[in-house]
Design brief:
By secondary structure, the chain is an alpha+beta fold. The chain is built from seven helices and nine strands; from the N terminus they run ββαβαβββαβααβαβα. This is Acetoin dehydrogenase.
Length: 210
């Protein structure tokens, strides 16, 4: 499935300054920008910058960024699920994963994450996708935020709700391994019943295994 990636942008005024939220951005645009040194949640900043450039070059890959002048201060990624995850086993070309979302500490609490998701969903092509995200508490910055697992989970859910993602039950062993972990998804308005059924089967694969 190859959809045009329709660029959208939104200016966000915060107490710390005005930033631009835009995307999907091309790999060329990403390569020409600075990548903030505080974006360290997943990899060393240089390596994560390279990873985002690679994702932006994929046919389904989408990167929405928050930018202060020419510096990326936040981002969200969308791409097909990892081939080793259960979510790729249905071989669904209309299921993509919100793989990572990160905002530098300076702009946390300024609704940057929510706005990254809102701008993502401004693109009509997202109505042709089931967008999923898997939340694992061991990825969360509990130390940096000072929040406990449950408060962080509430913050994550509220942020994902801003992009239309809702909680979905699943028997995935990794998600089920801790009650704070969860699967969230947004089913686009043009998704057919067959795809929804396939998604339900992926959510509850263990039900049919004895």
């Amino acid at each position: 499935m190859d959809h045009p990636k329709l660029y959208n942008a939104k200016e966000l005024k915060t107490a710390k300054g005005t930033i631009m939220i835009e995307g999907p951005v091309s790999k060329e645009q990403l390569a020409s920008m600075e990548f903030h040194e505080d974006l360290v949640a997943f990899r060393v900043p240089d390596q994560q910058h390279k990873a985002l450039i690679e994702i932006a070059g994929l046919p389904e890959g989408r990167i929405i960024i928050a930018r202060e002048h020419n510096t990326i201060v936040g981002y969200v990624t969308y791409l097909y699920p990892d081939p080793l995850e259960r979510w790729s086993q249905g071989k669904m070309d209309n299921l993509i994963e919100l793989g990572a979302i990160e905002v530098i500490p300076k702009y946390r609490g300024a609704s940057v994450g929510k706005n990254l998701l809102r701008v993502s969903m401004m693109d009509d092509a997202m109505e042709d996708y089931i967008v999923i995200t898997t939340e694992y508490y061991w990825h969360w910055d509990l130390k940096g935020t000072g929040l406990n697992v449950w408060d962080y989970r509430k913050v994550m859910e509220k942020m994902m709700n801003a992009g239309g993602l809702e909680y979905y039950a699943t028997d995935d062993p990794e998600i089920s391994s801790h009650p704070a972990n969860c699967l969230m998804a947004r089913i686009g308005s043009r998704i057919d019943p067959e795809s929804i059924q396939k998604f339900d089967q992926l959510r509850f694969m263990n039900r049919f295994m004895y």
